[in-house]
Specification:
The complex is a heterodimer. Chain A is an all-alpha fold. Chain A is built from 14 helices and no strands. Chain B has a two-stranded antiparallel sheet. In chain B, strand 1 and strand 2 form a beta hairpin. In chain B, helix 9 packs across helix 10, helix 13 crosses helix 14 and helix 14 packs antiparallel against helix 15. Classes of the chains: A mainly alpha, B mainly alpha. Chains A and B meet through helix 5, helix 6, helix 11, helix 12 and helix 13 of A and helix 1, helix 6, helix 7, helix 10 and helix 13 of B.
């Protein structure tokens, strides 16, 4: 498709989106090769960060722990590397499920209209009436803090916007001639939606949705930071950041003594989200024809 | 198009949404057994024996809709349950912690609007020149910053490196004593405003010193958001015919940009203020937690980590109602600033 070639050329021309792609690529590499970069020790769950003792005070970077250890002697390097895997895991699962729910409910609402549309849209109204993170926090609290709860909560709070977007896309193509034509030829509603309406309507929305992985990971990290996410010691950027909360200020002689515990996990979150957002920003310009002309 | 009938129609539309929101919140509590739900009303361990009585009082073993009816009438009477982390009714907790959050909002909102609009205008006026690229990168970076990490980094520098220059909490210890003494009248419980009303300079300075970092932390994401929106809205506005007319009249570039283009470009910014409100409500939870700035966000986060279900759900309900009302006000404002919407009558 020439569309894709055009898009690729636009992306390559924009230095910011190139940087975004490179950042994401590096994180993909880190996630795939995590077992080689930070080999797990023994039979334990590789997502649990190894500890070097139980003392609370973070230890500065050394040969053994190149990023140092954080509160409770968890190895920061191991944590951030395997945390990359956790981040992709959360992001991909949440976005994947949300997009499926969005496509199903959005195309039902958009294609059939009437009562079905009304009911689905009023339900989305209810969920959109909450500030997202607050609703997610309430859901996690009720079903019990864990990484799975965080993912469920993020799915619950984010599907309505995708359902609405896809409904809008379907509405735009619903009255097109080729939809009429295939309906006239006796195709079932399911066939019309799946074979004709969806492929012509939703690619831009799907692309934008996939780039929301950064935003999902950011929300998940925030919940983890509040102590509502993964169990203690699980490789998770948000939790690693929260470990540093008691170590923001060092002793009087060395106020920045524990900088590594505070700074490093946050930098991983920042760059991960930044990568997706840089790409998203470039795509928004390409996909929005009003902006492209300028 | 009558503004009044529009407002009435919008108010009627609120009913199903608020009904849905309350059913949803109540539905969440139904995941628990009657005994667990009764414990949401329990105030101390001594009351454990009263659980059957509480179940009877609130009808917790009745069918869903009966229970919902009982619950919603309790909510209308101001009974949202008992918040165990702060040992007071949920409604009292909201009332108690709200002033601190309002104080943050009072400072953050103008900062967000002024900074966002100003930077967005500059970026658009310098389209594709260095200033535009810098603000673009700045916006994306600001948009990607984990708020909780930004707060910690700011504390590390301004509290750690600069020896307590900008500390956490709302007031320093002696000032806190002073504020709670008989000499200081707490009109609003918003420290800065009370300090001004009491003509107390030291308290005002101390309160401001404690506000700087949380306000910055709360604002960064939204400044980035408004700035990008303002930029694209300005670009759209600058391409319009009336700008050409204004330029042809020989008006200076400054007048064209700041008067003719910007006023029209502000309309989209107004329409997203509901969104900004939600982002701030989310941000308040994180910001107040990091800076132990004891507002409703701090209380809610504490409640969430200590399984204070009544507190968390009460907080969520409170925010949803507020958010819905904010959106209503925004829509009404929108019809005031954009006459096209008022005349068009295609409001949904």
């Amino acid at each position: 498709m020439t569309d894709w070639k055009f898009m690729a050329r636009q992306l390559a021309r924009n230095p910011l989106s190139l940087i975004g792609i490179i950042i994401i690529f590096i994180f993909v590499i880190l996630a795939i090769f995590a077992p080689l970069i930070a080999p797990p020790q023994g039979y334990r769950d590789p997502y649990m960060i190894p500890r070097d003792g139980y003392s609370a005070t973070p230890q500065p970077p050394s040969e053994e722990h190149i990023f140092g250890t954080t509160e409770g002697q968890y190895d920061i390097f191991y944590g951030v590397i395997w945390g990359t895997r956790s981040a992709f895991h959360v992001g991909l699962v949440v976005i994947g499920i949300v997009v499926v729910i969005g496509i199903v409910l959005g195309s039902l609402a958009g294609y059939f209209g009437g009562v079905i549309d009304e009911v689905i849209m009023r339900i989305t109204d209810i969920f959109l009436a909450f500030p997202a993170l607050i609703l997610a926090m309430a859901i996690v609290t009720v079903i019990g803090p864990s990484l799975k709860s965080v993912m469920i909560a993020l799915i619950v709070v984010s599907w309505p916007s995708y359902a609405r977007l896809i409904r809008g896309d379907i509405l735009q193509v619903r009255e097109e001639d080729y939809i009429e034509a295939s309906r006239g030829l006796g195709a079932s509603s399911a066939r019309v939606i799946i074979r004709h309406a969806l492929p012509n309507a939703i690619y831009p929305t799907l692309i934008m949705a996939s780039l929301d992985i950064g935003a999902v990971v950011l929300s998940a990290a925030a919940l983890s930071f509040l102590g509502l996410g993964a169990p203690e010691g699980y490789a998770d950027w948000g939790q690693l950041t929260s470990f540093a909360r008691n170590w923001i200020v060092g002793p009087t002689a060395e106020p920045l003594k524990y900088w590594f515990a505070v700074t490093i996990p946050g930098l991983f979150i920042l760059f991960f989200v930044l990568g997706w957002n840089l790409l998203g920003d470039a795509f928004r310009d390409i996909l929005d024809p009003r902006l492209a002309r300028r | 198009m009558e503004l009044r009938s529009y407002i009435i129609r919008r108010l009627l539309l609120l009913i199903p949404v608020l009904f849905g929101v309350t059913v949803f919140i109540f539905g969440i509590t139904m995941l628990f057994s009657p005994i667990e739900r009764a414990s949401l009303y329990i105030r101390s361990a001594r009351q454990m024996g009263d659980i059957p009585a509480i179940i009877a009082t609130y009808g917790l073993d009745q069918p869903f809709w009966v229970q919902y009816g009982t619950w919603i009438s309790q909510v209308f009477h101001g009974n949202l349950g008992w918040s165990s982390v702060v040992n007071m009714p949920v409604w009292d907790a909201i009332w108690n912690f709200l002033p601190a959050t309002l104080e943050l909002a009072i400072f953050a909102t103008p900062l967000i609007i002024l900074m966002g609009v100003f930077l967005g205008t500059r970026a658009a006026a310098h389209k594709d020149r260095p200033l535009d690229h810098v603000t673009r990168v700045g916006a994306i970076a600001g948009w990607s910053l984990p708020t909780f990490w930004l707060g910690l980094m700011l504390l590390m520098v301004f509290y750690g490196l600069f020896r307590g220059l900008l500390p956490p909490d709302r007031l320093s210890f002696p000032m806190n004593l002073l504020v709670n003494s008989a000499d200081f009248v707490r009109y609003t419980r918003i420290n800065t405003i009370d300090a001004i009303l009491n003509l107390n300079g030291p308290v005002l300075l101390d309160a401001l010193r404690h506000l700087i970092l949380p306000v910055i932390t709360l604002s960064v994401v939204n400044v980035a958001f408004i700035m990008r929106l303002m930029r694209s809205s300005m670009l759209e506005s600058l391409g319009k015919g009336y700008i050409l007319t204004a330029r042809a009249k020989g008006l200076s570039e400054r007048v064209v940009v700041n008067k003719h283009a910007r006023r029209n470009a502000l309309i989209p910014v107004i329409t997203v203020s509901g969104y900004v409100f939600a982002a701030m409500a989310n941000g308040v939870v994180i910001t107040e937690t990091i800076f132990t700035f004891k507002g409703i966000g701090w209380w809610a986060a504490l409640a969430a980590t200590r399984l204070d279900i009544a507190g968390v759900l009460g907080f969520a309900l409170f925010n949803a109602v507020l958010f819905v009302l904010v959106n209503l006000v925004v829509d009404i404002l929108y019809t005031r600033v954009d006459p096209r919407v008022r005349l068009g009558g295609v409001m949904q």
